[in-house]
């Protein structure tokens, strides 16, 4: 089975970086990998509400940082024939992952099952982003263990 395009959500945790490597092992030699980072809109709103930084300024800083990091990661492409695209969006991470996968007709999602916010009370109460994506997606998903940091 040759996978032509894969969506890889990236939160810059070691696990999501492993997911990128795994996606390269699955993709067709002429395929495309899209690295997606979702800026959590709830997190940005809380920053503004708590007076840490103005919402628009926070969004701009987070977006620029994510774009720079994704560009750097995409330069590590081990293949000359695999296309690597990057995308940064704002919203609820699980919802945006599902929306992008659906809207752009990806064949597969490869994501880490243990991201940046492991072990939080929110994760215990509401489940992880990976679990929400797994339950709602209509395409194959490969979950890559986060491993040891």
The H-level CATH homologous superfamily, spelled out, is: HUPs
- The structural domain count equals 1
CATH topology: Rossmann fold
Stretches where pLDDT is under 50 for at least 5 consecutive residues are: none
Share of residues in strands: 25-35%
Extended strand count: 5
Number of discrete helical segments: 6
* Helix share, percent: 40-55%
Average pLDDT: 87
Q: Main sheet?
A: 5 strands, parallel
Task: Explain this structure.
This protein is an alpha/beta fold. The chain has helices spanning 14-26, 41-49, 55-74, 93-103, 121-126, 129-136; strands spanning 3-9, 27-40, 83-91, 108-112, 141-144. The protein has a five-stranded parallel β-sheet with strand order 3-2-1-4-5, sandwiched between helices. Helix 4 runs parallel beside helix 6.
Any chance you could write out the topology, listing elements then pairs?
Blueprint: E1 3-9, H1 14-26, E2 27-40, H2 41-49, H3 55-74, E3 83-91, H4 93-103, E4 108-112, H5 121-126, H6 129-136, E5 141-144
Parallel strand pairs: 1-2, 1-4, 2-3, 4-5
Helix pairs in contact: 4-6
